[in-house]
Amino acid sequence: MLTKRLIACFDIKNGMVTKAHKFQDNINVGRAEDIACKIYQDQIDEIIFYDITASSEKRKIDIETVKNVAKHVFVPFTVGGGIKNLENMYEVLKAGAEKISVDSMAVRNPEIIREGAKAFGSQCIVLSMQVKRVEKTDKIPSGYEIMIDGARVATGMDAVEWAKRGEELGAGEICVNSIDRDGTHAGYDIEITSMISNAVNIPVIASGGAGTPEHVAEAFTKTGASAAIISSMLYSPRLERNYTVKEIKQKLIDCGVPVRPWIENYNCI
Amino acid sequence: MIGIIDYKAGNAPSVLNACKKLHINAHLVSTPGQVEGCQGIILPGVGSAQATMDSLRESGLIDVMKEKVLDRGTPFLGICIGLQVLFEHSEEDDAECLGWLHGEVKRFPDTEVRVPQIGWNEVKFVSEHPVLSGLNESEYFYFVNSYYVVPNDKEVILAKTNYGLEFCSMIAHRNIIAAQFHLEKSGATGLRLLKNFALRVGN
């Protein structure tokens, strides 16, 4: 049986992992390479790495950090931030990533999804979307709007419509990032995650707001999400208590969620 | 030395990283001359069967791979698309593949499951093989695929997995081993399998 995935997400700035609250007030947590290595040993299922200021600073992604992380991590590795064209995608894949996450750039130029999927396969393209709860209107019937550029700019686009369009264009996965929940430790936005997972037939990743193992379990029991992103829970100094992957998985097992089993002596196999 | 076939749509760097971690003597290879000198060959893959076939044709690697693997018995490991292209035909883009094994490549039923399959799934080994040394009867590996192989000769099936239906997730035929899952991205379990392959090459 296909298991549900736990994905550790790192926001990277100048080679350091940083942790935000509602996309702001970032604090440094540690070197990307060191934290990725530790979480890999901790048996995380997958890792995502966002170069969070690449887009707004209009520069290319930090390839050296991508390479350094890829050397230590033998689980799937997704990279996003500042990817504008096929050449940037190729560079990131050559550096050792498997998947590319596109976000603001895909809103500006949706064709990048199609081009990326054609060149590298759908499985390679993760459409990440920043969603914000707004009043329901004719233009935004779901009540969730797509934001871009670190949640700073509203687009007037409906989140569910954009997810469907992303699937049509060839995205292999959709990551639903709740701006309202980001770094709040209040739990995922179940409503929009559910709406999007019902609207598309590709895997959906819940993101933003996880603070306890219960929240993670909820993402899987109350929505059709295939994966959940955790970050604060694993390493944020803002949280009173951090959790290990093993602790979170135990909670998922207790709730009947299928997960990749824990392996004793992971390094010694 | 193990040659990891490097082509544009592949994920050869990830496989090379995994080999380096295991101290396996492996290099990226992209020309017939380089492939000629290899004692073992890994064909990694992501993307589509057609793109992989086009890339192998353009690099002029098909003949040398065929000669080494089919005629001279060089140990071969195919990963993901590197498994699919071994068969005759893929439903994906109606692609003609290498045809080293009889059978075809089909798409998962969209009505039953989300496609692509992305994530860790259970691989149940159905027979014994030296490359499985140290592994349990079933293990979890990381999959990313919309298509799966259907070998004509069921004897080549080394493992099975369920996703909407039961499909062949690994094959073994003489010197050829190939897996639908990404062993280079399946944590310690995948690394173990890669190491076992390297041991067969004499690495």
Topology, element by element:
The complex is a heterodimer of chains A (269) and B (203).
Chain A: E1 5-13, E2 16-21, E3 24-31, H1 32-41, E4 46-51, H2 63-70, E5 77-80, H3 86-94, E6 99-102, H4 104-108, H5 111-120, E7 125-133, E8 144-148, E9 153-158, H6 159-169, E10 173-178, H7 190-199, E11 204-207, H8 213-222, E12 227-230, H9 232-235, H10 245-254
Parallel strand pairs in A: 1-4, 1-12, 4-5, 5-6, 6-7, 7-10, 10-11, 11-12
Antiparallel strand pairs in A: 1-2, 2-3, 7-8, 8-9
Chain B: E1 2-5, H1 12-21, E2 26-29, H2 32-36, E3 40-43, H3 49-58, H4 62-71, E4 76-79, H5 81-84, E5 89-90, E6 95-96, E7 103-107, E8 117-125, E9 138-145, E10 147-151, E11 157-162, E12 166-173, E13 176-179, H6 187-201
Parallel strand pairs in B: 1-2, 1-3, 3-4, 4-13, 5-7
Antiparallel strand pairs in B: 5-6, 7-10, 8-9, 8-11, 11-12, 12-13
Explain this structure.
Chain A has 269 residues and is an alpha/beta fold. Chain A has a single domain, classed as TIM Barrel, CATH 3.20.20. In chain A, 32% of the residues lie in helices and 26% in strands. Chain A has helices at residues 32-41, 63-70, 86-94, 104-108, 111-120, 159-169, 190-199, 213-222, 232-235, 245-254; strands spanning 5-13, 16-21, 24-31, 46-51, 77-80, 99-102, 125-133, 144-148, 153-158, 173-178, 204-207, 227-230. In chain A, helix 8 (213-222) links the parallel strand 11 and strand 12. The relative contact order of chain A is 0.15. The model of chain A has no long low-confidence stretch (mean pLDDT 91). Chain B is 27% helix and 32% strand. Chain B contains 6 helices and 13 strands. The chains are: A alpha/beta (269), B alpha/beta (203). At the A-B interface, helix 3 of A face helix 1, strand 8, strand 9 and helix 6 of B.
